[in-house]
Amino acid sequence: MAGALAACSPGEEAAPSDTSTDPSATSAEPSTSAPASPSPSPSDTSESAPTESESVAPTEPTEPTDEAPAPEDFSDFGTTDQTSDGWPVHGPDTYLTEVRAAAHEGYDRVVLQFRGSEPPSHDVRYVDEATGDGSGLPLDVEGETFLYVGTAIVLNPYDVGDPEDSVLTGPGDIGDATISGLFAEGPWEGHSATYIGLDRTRDFRVTTLTDPARIVVDIRR
C-alpha cells in the first residue's frame, strides 16, 4: 500500500453477450423410418437460459468515505488553535498514508488518512510560513498564510513493519478545492506536519474519524 496525495473522490455492469446457433442441414431424400418424436420446446425444458434479472453483477469494494458531518451554520468554526487533549500523546503506531482535498458547498475539506483504525493526536493552528520540522527551511507551498496540521506519534512505514510502503511527503493535489496549496512532510522524531496554504485567515474546524483513521479539516470559504 503506497502512500498518495490525491483529490478526494459507482459500478459497471457488463452487457449480455449475443449468442446464435447455425440451423442444421436437412436431407433431400424421403425417409422410411418412423418419424422422430418432436423435440421439446424451450418452454418445456426444466433448464432455461439465465435471464437478465437472474444475473448478478460483480460488486466493487466499498471505499472509505470522508463523511464527517457537514456543517449546518458554521457555528463550530473558528480561527483559534484546535489541539487534542494532552497533546502530544502517544497513540497507536501509525503513519500517514494519504492526503486529499475536495470542495463542498460553503467550505473545503482536507483529509489526512493514517494506517490503522485510530487517528493520532493532533495540533492544528495558523502559522506565518511553512517550514520543515528537521531543517527549518521554507517549504514550497502556495499561500499567504498556512494551517499547520501537526500529528504525533507518527512513524516511518518500516518502523511498524511495513517496509514496502513509502514515506508520504511532498505537494498534494488540491483537486477542485479553493485552497491555495497542500504539502505533507515526512515524519521527524515522531511528528509529521501537513501545511494547508490559504489566501487569508479563514474559519476552520477539525474532526476525527475511525476505521480507517482520519483527521478532517474543514475550511470555510
UniProtKB/TrEMBL annotation:
Residues 1-92 are annotated as: Disordered. Transmembrane segments: none annotated. Residues 14-62 have a biased composition (Low complexity). Residues 95-220 form the AMIN-like domain. This is AMIN-like domain-containing protein. It comes from Serinibacter arcticus. InterPro entries: AMIN-like. It holds the Pfam family AMIN-like. Coiled coil: none annotated. Residues 63-75 have a biased composition (Acidic residues).
